[in-house]
Structure formats: structure tokens, C-alpha cells
Amino acid sequence: MAMATDNVAADSGMLHHVRRGDALARWIGRHPVWSVIIAAAVLLLLWLVFAPWPAGFEEVFGRKRLFINALINGITLGGLYFLVASGFTLIFGLMRNVNLAHGSLYLFGGYMGYEAGEWTGSWLFSYVVAFVCCAAIGVAMQVLIFRRMEGQDLRQTLVTLGLALVFSDLMVWVWGGNAFQITTPDWLAGPVRTPIVVALRSSGEAVFLQYPRVRLVIFLAAVVIGIAMWLALNRTRIGMIIRAGVDDRDMLSVLGYRVQLVFVTVFAFGAGLAGMAGIVGGTFQSISLGEDSHFLLASLQVVIVGGMGSIPGAALGALIIGLAEQFGLVYFPSYATVLTFLIMVVVLALRPQGLLGRR
Amino acid sequence: MALAQATDRIPSDVGAAPREGAFTRWVSANAPILLLGLVLLLLPSVASDFILNQIVGWTLILGMIALSLMFLAGFGGMVSLAQMTTAGVAGYMITVLGASSIPTISLFWPWWVAAPLAIIIAIAFGTLAGALSARTEGIYTIMITLAIAVAFFNLTLQNWSIFNGFNGFTSVPAPTAFGINWKAPIPFYYLVLVCAAASYAAVVYISRAPFGLALQGVRDNPRRMAAIGYNVIAHRIAAYTFAALIAAVGGILMVWLNNQISPGTVGIEATIDLLVIAVVGGLGHPIGAFVGAFIYVILRTFALDALVAVGLDGRRFQTIIGLGFLVIVLFSPDGVIGLWRRWFARARRSGARSDR
To answer: How many whole angstroms separate alpha carbon A249 and alpha carbon A255?
Structure first.
């Protein structure tokens, strides 16, 4: 029966009506070799993470603590990258606007969050401040500038570049070259004990990995935001309008939707998300001069690898880039950036539209 | 590609003087350029060494690198942000293969081995970057080339075994060859002038040669060109290769002029400044790259004093550059060249009206 519905669905092209579980089963049926490889890789990874390593292993891969730390750092860094890049990819997907000032928005959000945190002492409130400030700038950019040059992709991009130049210099003016660390609130401070064994004491007692609580919480928040975004895009009316706009914005406006309003909303949301990510980055690492270009590059790499304009693509790309950066840093520090770059090259060569991108 | 306008030649007054020889016509059509060339040739007799090297020399070198970007963007429709990086690769290679203050890394090969090899490596790099981005179009090209540029910058910053990390290299002077010390201001000025003039002439020539015309066709309508039978990707990659040659020569001259190279040379700021130069000058004509470079160098050299003189913070140079760039992009997408052309056309029109 399921087979029959599958065939009907596939024949009539109505793939949307097939439930997720069926889609997975069909994917496995269509790519048996890849399924086995992916399953084996996942199992191997799980074993690497949870089992105590045999003696010979540590000579090849170094200490297990190092490996696990790189893995978790990579995943949590991927969460941060996702927060930055999802706004970037959303804006790009809808408006064809490569917002090269996105890194500046990230940095600005971080600074504003720092100031708000110093002023009120509330970590959560600083997120609101950063979101509102960056969203306001995003709205201003869209309404004052990009609306006037719609359809001129290249010119818009050049404008964002000019804005990035001005923004970064103005931020140097206000905040100088010092690095700011956003203090973690008490209820998130300190390490948490994970159920991952990193080593065995001579007494046979297992040593569990300690990991900063705040990083795990923020990563979970990123996952929640990602899922919420996906749901909002795929299950709500607004999301439907946005997706329609990504596919054909002229048709959408012909249908009577106020496309400009959708554009402004998406720009504000994407910019606000970048601002919030600035606080996350300020808590993870620090915010300082030059972080804007670092996160602009990260966003570019994430969307190039994951696929431009795709939210799941941004998630996948962020995970890959985050992991590559951390593993590169641990295992060959001198060439860490080359690793992420190589990944980008391979993806571009095999799938120019990105892993989950569409033509 | 609203930015890239065809290189409309300056219409020569064929109707006015039909009997004139081809040479005279060519001279009258290119009078401004020839005049500029004459001025530059005679400049050393009046100008100080500072003006020769730090103003005009730097302008010509930056202009060459910007010219490679202009060639790609104006004729090929590919705004590549990796041109400064290509120049930087050549600059780094000449220090690694040639002489520098770091004897543990530099190989101290003679200049006639090091310089061609550096250029070849940079061309290979530029071609590779081109091959990566040639399959994409418009804004995608910007994204990918920007990613390439920043990745190389980070590599130079992190890598100590080849690029000497944060410190980079110092004491990389121009060599002595053919009995002339090219370090000296006047020989170096002429070296730069010859290279810049040759690049300019090459770009102008190629833009009118079959390859350049095909490239402009690819810019305007890649699908139609592919349908006629042109290999679109190959044309794009070849354009990158040619642009890399110009950028590489510019990069080596830049290192010889500044006597040093460090990650800042290929940093994101330098990369973007180069785009600013090309766009502000104008992507419509090769001379735009040099005009933009001249404005940039003048600003860079004197803006600090000027800003302080009018009571502003001299460190806000980058804001001035950014705002100027924004104004040009918003109000005159074809740059200063476009402004000048429009002004010239209006002046000519009103002149014709008053004659009547």
C-alpha cells in the first residue's frame, strides 16, 4: 500500500504529500551505497566519541580529550556560524542581495549587546537590544537604499561593501581596538559533566569530559532557532509567502502580496539574527576589531558549501565549516584555513550550487 | 552588468578630415593619452623623488593591479576580488625565491629566475581562482573570489614556514641588472612606467582583438555566445590568466617599491580598496583604473593632513573612502570616467549650440 502511494506520489510529482519517514526510506532505497557509507560513518563517530580508545589509537590521533574537544567545539562553533549565516542566506535567497555588511551587523550586535549587558546587567535583555538595533539598521538599509536599486544585484553588493567599510571604521571610532568579552551569567557559568569518557585512570575509574555549560546551551538555542525557522518557513503562511518570493518575486507581487513588506521583514529578521549572533560570539570568544570580516568570510563559506538561499544548507554548511576549522586548528594549525578552503573548492567543483542548493 | 559598459571608442573626426593619414587620425583620437604619456615621461626632470615614487609610482602600480580587475569586470563582467591576492602571491613568491631579510626562508635566487617564476606561480594561482569562479556569475563571483582572498590572507597570517606569519618580509629591494641599479628612484620610476604603459596598451589592444570582443560577448550574453559555438568557460578562464599576468607584475613592483610585504598587503582592506579604486575610477575604460588609483593615492597621502586641518579626526580616512565609494556607486555607476564623459558630452553639446 505504501509502495503504491509512493508510486502515485512520485508519478504525479506531488512529493510534498509524502510523509518524512517515507522520504527517508525512499532515499535509502535510491542510494543504497551512500546509505551504508553514511550509516557506517555515523556508527564509527559514535564509537569514537563514547568508547574508551584502545592504546594504539592515541598515538595516531593524539589524546582523546583533544579529539572530543575539537569535535564539540566544532559543532558549537557550527551553531554560531549557523546563526550568522542563516540570516545571510535568507536575505540572499529572497532579495538576491549579497549583504557584505553582514559581518558588520554581527560585530555591531556584539558591541550593542556588550553595552546593554554592562548597563542593565541582564544577559538575556542584551539579546533583545542587539536584535532590535541590528534589525533597525537592516530596515533602514532596505528602505533607504536597496529598494531604490532593485534587480541590480551587483550594484547592491557594491553598496553593501561600501557600507561595510564605513561601518567598520565607525565602530573602530566608537569602541576602539580593544577586545570585549561578554560575561556569562551565573546560571550558565561553569562546566557541565558530559557522559563522554575521555580517559581511564589507572584505577580503572572513567574520566568524564567537562564542557562549558554556556556553549552547550547556546548550541541548543541555535538548534531550536534553526528548527523554528524551518517550521516557520515551511509550515506557516508567512513562510509560504517568503518561499514563493524566493522562487518568483514578480509573480508574488502580481498576486497582490506586498513584496516590499516581506523584503523589509526578512531583512530585519536576518540582520537581527546577525546581531544576536554577535552576543553569542562575544560570549564564546570575544568581540573585537576584525571579527566582522572573519564572520563575513565564515558566512560566505557556509552558504557556498551549503547552498545559497537554503536554510538546511546553511545548517549543514555551518556544521562542516565549524568542524573543519576546529579539527584543522588541532591537527594542522599552520594550514587550518586551507582545509576549509579546500572543502569549498571541492564543493564548487562537484556541486557549484552548494550541497543543498538549487539551480 | 549595469556597471560594465562597452568601451565605446572616442569617435574620431573622420568626416572632418577625410584626407588625413591613418597615423594622424590615430594621434588625434588618442591625444589625451599621448599627452599624459609625454607628461609622465618628462616628469623626472621636474618632480622630486617622493612624487616620482610615492605618488606617481604607487599610482601606476596600484593602477596596474586595478587594471587587471577592470579588465575582468569591465570586459568580462566578472568582479573578481582575488586580484590583490594574485598580486600578493607574486609579491610573496619574489621574496621567497629571491632576497629578503629572512635568510631561513628566502632562497636568494637571482632576479632573472625569481621574477619570472613568481609571475608564473601567480598566473597559475590566478587561473586556478578563475577556474573556480568562472562557472558562476555576477554576485556569486564576488562571493567566491572574496572567500579566496580572505583564505589566502588567513594563510599568510597563520603560516610561518613559507609566509613568515604576521611579520612578513622586509628588505626586498629591486635588483641591480644590466648595470643599472633599479632601486634608485628614477630608474625604478621608468621601470614602473614602462610596465604600466605596456599593461595599458595590452588591455586596450586585447579589448579590440577577437578574444576581447568574444569576451565582451560572453559578458553581455553567455548563452547566446555558447550557442554560436564559443567556449564561455574557456574564455573566462583565459581572461583570468591574462589579468593575473598584469596583477603579478604589479605585485612584484609593489613589493620592490615598498621594500616589504606582509599579510596586510593582501588583507581584506587592501582587497576592498582595490575594488573601490576600480569602481571609483570607472569600469568602462582601462584608464579608469589609473584615475581611481590616482585619487586613492592622493587621498591616502594627503587626507590625513586635510582632515586634521578642517578639525576632523585624521584616522577617519576609511570612512571618507567608504563614503566616496558609496556616492560613486549610488550616483555614477560608471565612475569618475563616466562623470567626465557626461560632462564632456554636455560641454560639447552646449558648445555646438552656441556656435550655431
So the answer is: 10
